[in-house]
Amino acid sequence: MDRTGPGQKYFIVTKGKAKPGKKGISKGCIGYVETETKEEVIGPVFTSGVKGSVKLEKENLHMLSKHQAQLLLFVSPSSKRLEVLQKEELFRAICCLVQSDVVVVQHKKESKPGVVQGVMQIVRKESYGDVTMLGFDVEITETERKAAFKKESALPLFSAGDILKVIIDSPPSSPLLAGNKQEALTMKDVLGNNSDPNLVQRGQDSRNSQISRGSGPPRMLRSTLEVGSMVEFKAINLATLYGVVRWIGVPEGKNQPWAGVELDYEVKGCTDGKLGVHRYFTCNGNKAMFVVLKNCKPDSRFLPLPPYKEAPQYHELQSDGSFEEDTDVPPIPESKVLALLEGRMKGIQGHYNSCYLDASLFSLFSCCVALDSVLHSSAGSEKHIQKILRRDIVNRLRRQGFVPAENVMNLRKLLGCDTYLTEEKDPEEFISILLNQVLSVDPLLKIRSNGKTQDSYTFQIILEKEQVVSTPTVQQLLETSFLTCDLKFQEIPSCLIIQMPRFGKKYKMFPQIIPSTELDITDLLHNTPRECFVCGGLAAVECYACVSDRRLMPGRIKQYCRPCEKQVHSHRLRRDHRPRELTLPHSFSSADPVPRQKLELFAVLCIETSHYVSFVKYGPGKHSWLFFDSMADRCGGENGYNIPEIRACPQVGDFLSQSEDDLAKADPCNMDESVKRLLCDSYMCMYQCPALSLYR
Ligand SMILES: [Zn+2]
Ligand SMILES: [Zn+2]
Hints:
It is built from 19 helices and 37 strands. Helices cover 21% and strands 25% of the residues. The strands form ten sheets. Strands 19, 24, 26, 29, 33, 34, 35, 36 and 37 form a nine-stranded mixed sheet that branches. Strands 7, 8, 9, 10 and 11 form a five-stranded mixed sheet that branches. Strands 17-14-13-12-18 form a five-stranded antiparallel sheet, with no helix packed on it. It starts with 9 loop residues before the first strand and ends with a helix. Mean pLDDT is 78; it is low at 144-152, 169-223 and 304-325. By secondary structure, it is of the alpha+beta class. One zinc ion (ZN) is lined by residues 532, 534-535, 537, 560-561, 563-564. Residues 532, 534-535, 537, 560-561, 563-564 line the site of one zinc ion.
């Protein structure tokens, strides 16, 4: 006889002795309906000592589905089965359990959280014909330390009676949390035609990982929070707190799983990983908080993005509470930078090859005002993108220290070409398109060449390798490049973005380049007072032929006052030199001291195996350097998200403040990793003119 087919009926004895005098049939016994009348059923009872079919009164029975019967059969002793059945809601949830569900089980008189590894068929010798029992293979979530001791001992299979709680931590949109739990997990789903649960035979591979539940509502995938998950939860004062799960377990004296969360910020009254007298993990003081696990949900700031979602409307973007206001935020003051920016999930979150863009935006806007004027320029027709850049990226970064990938994605969508959504691009291309085509900002650079002025947004170093030393400074590269191509700045740039002589990841001309922290462009300026190379007086002419003269500091630009020019060019080897007249601003008097025009380094964008990162100088202090990587880490595999990270890099400041001679001698083998990266991978060096940047 086939008792395993779908739609078969089973029963459990619920009252007294179902049939007085019939030995062995007591409460909790489970049987199978062979035939039934209005008031009675006839069929075998799965209990030892009873052979053959028996006749039982329906009023003493409760009808079961096959799946329910199988689950209850494994509950022992049989008297306990009715208790399980009475906890209706819990039993419904137990009937729906599949792999990866989180439960609390009774194990060695303790309640422990665990993850269902499989629903197992249990075949025993004394089994009941071809009806197998069902149990659960549950892996108990232990603290790391405890787990180390217990690893070897295999856990028993758990019965439905061992499961104290089913934790449903579906996404908030799930009907399971919307008060419709009953509806979502109705008996109909369990009893429906489909009595084919997710069975896994122990010792065999999963044969049937598909769960079909008839016409019932589809089961929501439960997001699994685990150690390392970024979570958010509401504090008692209803503020949303964010952090990383560092521990999951049932703390002493509690009966459900809790999460030990290391918060993003220190919060007064929090611990360093202790709850009561017990330590569950270790972190900095005032950062550990313990929360009932089910009250945690995945950090909504970092939920994975659907690749091509429609851009949210403004009212949606504004819904995030206190950030509705559109007031501008100045760059983060030096004294507050580390508190706001240092750590994981800081800076701009990377997504789909966005690192070129994240690194560019972070470099240009986090701590520097050189380009703030573009956020307000009225020239561009693209007010929408300007607003996104200003409010959702720059202001958000300066206010909160973190910009979710979604905000950057909204900007990418508006750059005019779909390739910006997914493809890796060059930072210079992005900067030019953003400033020129999108924001219609005036070119940052006006460079004279042969009497004509050329406009651009970035400057590419062009020279021959042999023209400079093997480890050149940016100052040397820029000067040589200007000399080689006979260029002059028409005016002092407020922001000078210099591209190093390299082509992406494929080729770099110099193994290392030293980013000059200060760039003296006095001699590269058109129409500006300059010092005589010899006596320091006001120069009147410059001589390109003298640049490479080995007796006169080769490589340096040479300009002279009239007496010195005569002297230098009286040498027989220099008699054919044709110095050029310099022009001076009309207002300048030769009695005034010659001012030096200097730009300050504020960021270095680096590339390493086609990944862009950046170093940013966040204030005048020597040590005020940050390292930013928008994809420092990743959480959750293919459907996960990137974790951007910012680190303080005072060692970069120490290194760069050495004398030029010491810098030239520096050996990359003995360098700090960050310093090495700065020198070996530099792709763009960004300079600002502090006096000018605010007024453009
Ligand atoms: Zn002179
Ligand atoms: Zn000369």
